[in-house]
Amino acid sequence: MTTPKIRSLFPATKQAIYLNSASQAPLNTLVNDRLQAHVATELNPIGRKGFRRETVRELLSKLLGGSPEEYALTTSTGVGLGMVAQGLNLKEGDNVVIPEREHWNNTFPWLQLEAKGIEIRFARLNADNSIDPATIEKLVDDNTRVVAIAAVRFNSGFRPNLAAIGEIAHAKGALFVVDAAQAAGMIPIDVERDQIDVMSGCGFKWLLGLHGTGFLYVSNRVVNRIDPVLPGMYAASKVYDELLLHKDARKFETGTIAYALFNAWIAGLELLLEIGIENIYEKALENTDLLLEGLREKGYRIVTPTNKRAARTAIVHFNTGAYDTTKGLYEKLKNERVLVTLQAENIRVSPNFFNTKEEIGLFLSLV
């Protein structure tokens, strides 16, 4: 698919320079068309066909690995991680290892367990905001039940070595749990290659869906170690007066979800498969090559770890060295219709495969 064709699918590219996919993907016409078609059937339900949950599961497994039945449909990253944290039935004396300054969706569910006597151990970041597997390994022991980490960190764009960390967790019999919110749809992920036991993500960022869509992957290897905490009508066989839970990740599904949103999301997932995640990731690195070179030339402070190209993603954080001037620069960009995020004390830039070199150049000319 050519760049002009791709850009034609994203009307936002005609209105602004959209460098904010880490916050939310701009709605594309394929998803919107499918959404409107679904809504139309609500006006006239005669002949309407039911939504197939299996379709979304199949597409997710093609994008991220595993099998379709290892995916449950959820409404957000936090919901999936929260269900897992509660469903593990950890006991006093157990511990969970997490890097410090993770996204709240990957800290709050675990921190809540402290009231039950579960120890939460935070692995320290390096000075450049990266995290070494060895740092995590030092905290993992025979009482570690979970090692949890984001596949891409929202506040730096750093991409940790998932396979290495998964191996560390498994050496002590711990579950390897991954927050994929800032990764799925942007970097290549294979749940089996990366030794992931559990992975939770959302649809509205790099997976080109809308708010209210998400997934929870639970490997068949470990599915019996986690109890469902909110089983609804889709979690078990349709038998009256008896709970016959599915023996795979479907047991974590609850009741009715926003079918219009999930049905529309199918078009976004199909687009990603057509373009190819490897191509999307290579474009991410090309974009950030340009960004990093330009920001360095202008003397800005780069917050994103850049020593290893394999640890980079489509996300770049930088600042001016002072919050007031950084905020002023953010406001200037917004006024020029260049959309980025003011994230804590930094500006976060997150281009996607529909962005061009010319747009990156214009952004750099404004900063």
What descriptive keywords fit this protein?
367 residues; alpha/beta; Aspartate Aminotransferase, domain 1; Aspartate Aminotransferase, domain 2; 7-stranded mixed beta sheet; 4-stranded antiparallel beta sheet; 13 strands
Quick take:
35% of the residues lie in helices and 14% in strands. The protein has 12 helices and 13 strands.
Give a written overview of the molecule.
The chain is α/β, with parallel strands linked by helices. It has 2 domains: 3-19 and 276-366, Alpha-Beta Complex (Aspartate Aminotransferase, domain 1); 53-273, Aspartate Aminotransferase, domain 2, CATH 3.40.640.10. 35% of the residues lie in helices and 14% in strands. The protein is built from 12 helices and 13 strands. A 7-stranded mixed beta sheet has the order 2-8-7-6-5-3-4, sandwiched between helices. The chain has a 4-stranded antiparallel beta sheet with strand order 9-10-13-12. α3 runs antiparallel to α9, α4 (53-64) runs parallel beside α9 and α10 packs parallel to α12 (357-366). It starts with a helix and ends with a helix. The model has no long low-confidence stretch (mean pLDDT 97).
